[in-house]
Amino acid sequence: MTRKQPTEAEVKAALEVIFARDSQVYQDRGFMRRIGFGKRPALINIDLANAWTREGNPFTCDGMDVIIPGVQKLLAASRARGIPIVYTSTAYKVPDGANSDAGLWGKKIPTEVLLEGSPDTAIDDRIAPLPNEQVIIKKRASAFHGTYLSSFLKAHNVDTVIVTGVTMAGCVRHTVEDAIAEGFRPIVVRECVGDRVWGVTEWNLFDIDAKFGDVEKLDTVLDYLHRIENEPR
Amino acid sequence: MTRKQPTEAEVKAALEVIFARDSQVYQDRGFMRRIGFGKRPALINIDLANAWTREGNPFTCDGMDVIIPGVQKLLAASRARGIPIVYTSTAYKVPDGANSDAGLWGKKIPTEVLLEGSPDTAIDDRIAPLPNEQVIIKKRASAFHGTYLSSFLKAHNVDTVIVTGVTMAGCVRHTVEDAIAEGFRPIVVRECVGDRVWGVTEWNLFDIDAKFGDVEKLDTVLDYLHRIENEPR
Amino acid sequence: MTRKQPTEAEVKAALEVIFARDSQVYQDRGFMRRIGFGKRPALINIDLANAWTREGNPFTCDGMDVIIPGVQKLLAASRARGIPIVYTSTAYKVPDGANSDAGLWGKKIPTEVLLEGSPDTAIDDRIAPLPNEQVIIKKRASAFHGTYLSSFLKAHNVDTVIVTGVTMAGCVRHTVEDAIAEGFRPIVVRECVGDRVWGVTEWNLFDIDAKFGDVEKLDTVLDYLHRIENEPR
Amino acid sequence: MTRKQPTEAEVKAALEVIFARDSQVYQDRGFMRRIGFGKRPALINIDLANAWTREGNPFTCDGMDVIIPGVQKLLAASRARGIPIVYTSTAYKVPDGANSDAGLWGKKIPTEVLLEGSPDTAIDDRIAPLPNEQVIIKKRASAFHGTYLSSFLKAHNVDTVIVTGVTMAGCVRHTVEDAIAEGFRPIVVRECVGDRVWGVTEWNLFDIDAKFGDVEKLDTVLDYLHRIENEPR
Q1: How high is the pLDDT of residue A12?
Q2: Is residue D229 classed exposed, middle or buried when 0-12, 13-18 and 19+ CB atoms within 10 A define those classes?
Q3: How far apart are the C-alpha atoms of A34 and D108, rounded to whole Å?
Q4: What is the domain partition of chain C in residue ranges?
Q5: CATH number for the D42-208 domain, one of 3.40.50.850, 3.30.450.180, 2.70.20.10, 3.40.50.720?
Q6: What is the pLDDT of residues B112-137, one digit of tens each?
Q7: At C1, is the pLDDT very low, low, confident or very high (cuts 50, 70, 90)?
């Protein structure tokens, strides 16, 4: 374990060993419970805009060959059931100066490349929103912070949020933490989330599954969506 | 006082009598204190979009012949000092149905005429925002609810919000209540706020001045803006 | 209408004339719609603590001979149905200084007399909470601001809030505005709300009924509570 | 790396290798910037109550032999400068049932052992709060969620939050994410934070330092506190 250049597979193997030990502690103490699916889900796709899904941007993430097809299946199933669908993007009108809407985040990460209205911050057209689906432009990591997401979900009597997107260490994680805090059951779709550096997806999924929401396989979530009632709201 | 059709002047006179009595009670008990101006103001213009400022819309308000010139003066003074300037409009992408962002408000008021991106919900061009000024599209009455306004103001170290716009019984009042709750000193500019029915502007200004913020004359606010430091933030 | 000392009955009569005219404008324009009762209510009693319900405090309100018996009936009906019940009080640990939790509100109203843990800020024992009912100590006017009320209600799948208490121009109004913004149907119980100065209850109920929630008679609300299902949550 | 039982030192060594690689990616892309100290700090101690600081509770954390003395030094320096000091604890009046304030969190973690008013949820007396310091009882992971913390800090013109406590994977991380979102500079004190399972402190500090706040040594933070002005607020 002193090699300077482990492969990504070796990193994941090392993490699995740690997670196995930590899971034992959590389970012995009554953590890692299942929150379960509720009756009225919504689908929330976090920051699957071109800056994150395409090559060549500081925000570019890995794994889109798996994430995008997974989200396409979730969109089809969600639209068939008529459940609320929300996309987010993170974008700024004024990256810096006296009227900047970037807040303090530009002091940590390169928010200056995320311009509102630019192609980079538009949703990837392989999973394009329909005209009546909400695209929420957020300014912070969480899809709930400084947005109308929570009251949108409550007004539609949603009790469960199915979460996809990027990044696990940033916007997806903060969104999930806020979701359970607000009173919504968070379900993170394993194949449909990602990030841009090694290990970070695995670690944040581990923390979430221990404390904040359930991490579920795509097939499990699709089965759930096929089973729920198609009802007027 | 049994006449069926008092004039607007008579309505105002009747309200003044009530306010005089009520003010005595409030003052005897320690209400109606002055919150005062802070050191770092921002200007917040509530819903001065065409649906409210022009004739012919269900949301049309009175008094634009006084409100608009007053806001023009505040904009000039604020821009000269480089303080943050925010406009709001209330507008919806999807007025009804499973993906509506109108929440429950359409069950009380005609939100269905406020379409995001339409000329009706664009800011009145007599007080047009500059390219680097924030126009926040809100979904609820308060400019703070479901928006990034509070964290925008905090990140710029604002301590005082100068509030103009419409309507006094709705969006201006709720914004002022939230402003003091959040920790900002609310200053409502007397000549620059209004509404669409008799008495409602006066009554809500009375309640605000008693409990939530200071109602100040335009000249007083302009004097304050001229006196503050023009400083980098 | 120029008399200096109208009676309270004359004040109310004058307001009724104004409201009749204003209501016509609102109705012609599509305001004053009915939001209606939902399926899962909660009862929210605002600031019915001794500082407001008993004589001799700056915060003392009128009308407790009607409000208290009304709330007793609502409590009985709500407990029989097993719906969530929340009381609020407004109270401070540190009224002023570097660690004060009064925020800026002490600059407008006498928050310094509302000490957390004192008899004044305890709920009136004529409507005492049961051990398993929530008493939320808030710091601001709205029961939602800076409290866990919204996520409490969402986690219990509440869709309707039945609101009682004081004051109409302050905490009740701000709570109702926030309730509809958050996605809950606000129902204000006409006989169970009040304030401490003339006219202010009537005016704020008028504004609320026009825009933010339905004002309903106590009997109507009791009928509704008797009709809903007594269900496990 | 296939051994089933690595030691804690080996786990940390493996993580360091991963972090070195990931840091390179972040720095190449413009992440991992320094947010820096502001002018008006507050000290926020997260969940240093007996359930977390003492042996024998499901929530018991490691490392108190270092965390507690560090927090003692921070408290002394903060009190000498008169800056706002806040402690949090997580506790529930009603762990389950129709009036539970645990929200959905009890479906993931053992919230049922955290009773409001019990010795377990009282702040550890080795770092006891003074009578005029705020102890905020929160219901969710973040110290900001459903509490008056944000408006308390804004009303005191705070721009920087110095964060200590537990757990890194839960309440400390969520608090830090919310802090920068709200517009406060988060500074996490390296020696004064912890958790209860291997690796989780290191990983969450890595994610935070990359994106949400600065992780600083205790000595650096103490130096900063000694340098700031002791000023009336």
Answers
A1: 85
A2: exposed
A3: 6
A4: 10-19+40-227
A5: 3.40.50.850
A6: 999 999 999 999 999 999 999 999 99
A7: very low
**Cβ–Cβ gap C182/A153 under 8 Å:** no
Chain C residues in contact with D139 by the CB 8 A cut-off are 148, 151-152
E strand intervals along chain B: 41-46, 85-90, 134-138, 160-166, 185-194, 214-216
Residue B231 is predicted with a pLDDT of 54
Contact B181 C145 (CB under 8 A): yes
pLDDT tens digits along C101-139: 999 999 999 999 999 999 999 999 999 999 999 999 999
Residues 6+ apart with CB under 8 A from D96: D102, D106, D112
Nearest CB to D35: which of A59, A107, A181?
A107
- Residue spans of chain A under pLDDT 50: 1-3, 232-233
Please report the number of interchain residue pairs, chain B to chain D, with beta-carbon separation below 8 angstroms: 28
Q: Give me the pLDDT at residue C232, please.
A: 45
User: Chains with 3 or more CB pairs closer than 8 angstroms to A?
Assistant: B, C, D
Write out chain B residues lying below 8 Å of A83, CB-based.
Answer: 98
Task: Assess contact for C172 and D167: CB atoms under 8 A.
Answer: no
Report CB contact under 8 Å: C183, A159. no
Could you tell me the mean pLDDT of each successive run of 10 residues in chain B, 233 residues long? 68 89 95 97 98 98 98 98 97 94 97 98 98 97 98 98 98 98 98 95 97 98 92 47
Q: Which residues on neighbouring strands pair with residue A11, listed in sequence order? A: none
| Rounded-to-integer distance, Cα C154 and Cα D10, Å | 44
| C22-65 per-position pLDDT tens digit | 999 999 999 999 999 999 999 999 999 999 999 999 999 999 99
Q: By CB neighbour count within 10 A (0-12 exposed, 13-18 middle, 19+ buried), where does C66 fall?
A: middle
List the single residue in C with minimal CA-CA distance to D233. Answer: C98
- Could you tell me the fold of the domain covering A35-227? Rossmann fold (3.40.50)
E strand or H helix that includes residue C131? none
pLDDT at A2: 47
Query: pTM higher than 0.80 for the full model?
Result: yes
Find chain A residues with C-beta within 8 A of B153's C-beta: none
Contact of D140 with chain A, judged by CB distance below 8 Å, is answered with yes
Residue C151 is nearest to which of A152, A157, A181, comparing CB atoms? A181
d(CA D112, nearest CA chain C) in Å: 14
Residues from chain B contacting residue A44 (CB–CB below 8 Å)? none
pLDDT value at residue D2: 47
CA distance to partner chain C, nearest, from residue D148 (Å):
4
Nearest to C160 by CA among C137, C143, C176: C176
d(CA B21, CA B23): 5
- Distance set, CA A29 to CA C111, D31, D140 (Å): 43, 36, 19
Superfamily, domain C10-19+40-227: Isochorismatase-like (3.40.50.850)
Dihedral angle sign, alpha carbons of residues C209, B178, D213, D82:
negative
pLDDT of residue A229: 79
Interface of C with B in 46-105 (CB under 8 A): 58-59, 103-105
Beta carbons of C123 and C48 less than 8 angstroms apart: yes
Residues A124 and A192: their CA atoms lie apart, in Å, by 14
Has residue D1 got a pLDDT over 70?
no
Q: What's the Cα-to-Cα distance from C139 to each of C93, D131, D133, rounded to whole Å?
A: 10, 18, 16
Q: What's the pLDDT at D230? A: 64
Contact in structure between B114 and B137 (CB atoms under 8 Å): no
Q: Is D122 in contact with D53 (CB distance < 8 Å)?
A: no
Question: Which two three-digit tokens encode residue D47?
Answer: 């969940």
